[in-house]
Amino acid sequence: MSAFYYLCSPMSGTTIIELLIKDDFSKDDLVKLLRAEGEEKIMLFQKSADVKEQYIGKKVWLRGLIEFSNICGKDCMYCGIRKSNTKLERYNLTDDEILTAARFAYENRYASIALQSGELESASFTNRIENLLYKIKEISNGELGITLSVGEQEPEVYKKWFDAGAHRYLLRIETTNPDLYRKIHPDNKKHNFQRRYDCLKNLQDIGYQAGTGVMIGLPFQTTEDLANDLLFMRDFDIDMVGMGPYIEHVDTPLIKYADKLLPLKERFELTLKMIALLRIMMKDINMVASTAQQTIDPEGREKSVEIGANIIMPNITPGKYRDDYSLYANKPGSDDDSVSNLEARLALIDTEIVYGKWGDTKHYEKRRKAEAIVYRR
Ligand code: SF4
Questions:
Q1: pLDDT, tens digit, 9 for 90 and up, residues 273-328
Q2: Rounded to the nearest 5 degrees, what angle is found at the Cα of 291, between the Cα atoms of 287 and 296?
Q3: Are 215 and 241 contacting, i.e. CB atoms less than 8 angstroms apart?
Q4: Model-level pTM greater than 0.85?
Q5: Does the Cβ of 74 fall within 6 Å of ligand 1?
Q6: Which of 35, 36, 87, 136 has its Cβ near the most Cβ atoms within 10 Å?
Q7: Contact status, residue 118 vs residue 79, Cβ threshold 8 Å
Q8: How far is residue 282 CA from its own chain's centroid?
Q9: 180 near 140, Cβ under 8 Å?
Q10: Using CA positions, which residue lies closest to atom 7 of ligand 1?
Q11: Statement: residue 9 has pLDDT above 80
């Protein structure tokens, strides 16, 4: 029996084909599509792969990831580098080490880097990042694109970094359900859902390409929550998204709910569905194929790329530090991230790496025009 017959058959009682003809979805549609299995799931992935090919092409762009410090002032209950985890060895790359990694990315035509660390708010941290941004621009003739992912900051700080050359910022909201947010964070002023939302808005208003994302498969999370997450990203008009499965870390408070979690394989599949649905809804945004997907399935990144993701973040942090940036358990090792390895793996899915180009989103250009953002580059 063909997939088409199965999906159209009155016996099946499904309207998945009707749903997949649409370009946008209601919450009920999304819940239904997130529950798609078997042939229905294959149809969903086929549709999102077609959308990706039509609007983006069979291509990925690189962001060389520099995890420059695992020192964090916060205590998110799911995160392995939370402040209260005393089992972790803390590190902080020197400026020279960061610049060496940035130079490597530039010379190898990655075109962009992403600077990521635990979250600190202080004048010295602000100034350090600002200086690094100027230096990275200097050593790359202004050519290296820079994404920052260093958490919640005051608007003046975001502006200072934007003026120094950062033009993308990734701040994952993790979940758009405030009640669930409260359950996975300590109940104090430092971990406040409204502030996170406001920070994301400030980033957008300043002119960054603003990115966010959620964890998929959290304890207490429902399919309705995930549908709402997708609607949030659409309504917020987000430019970039990094979504990944929640993977529990043994040295975190959330580990006590490990027996309430979906099996890893199901979290993986749910993440693929989230990527596929968002690609259909937001055809021209940038979407990361997360390493967390690769942690569950060795081909996880490629599977994400096939059905919608278009950004890969090879880890270029000096090797001796990588094991200590353990946001979640069993992060993949460094060998997986060599460009030759990536090229070979992507060739298997007929996808090429675009070198030497930022790969900014058409979505951002459109949003920028619509909002008449004064963008200085
Ligand atoms: S999720 Fe980010 S802010 Fe929270 S503890 Fe981990 S590194 Fe710090």
A1: 999 999 999 999 999 999 899 999 999 999 999 999 999 999 999 877 777 776 66
A2: 120
A3: no
A4: yes
A5: yes
A6: 136
A7: no
A8: 15
A9: no
A10: 118
A11: no
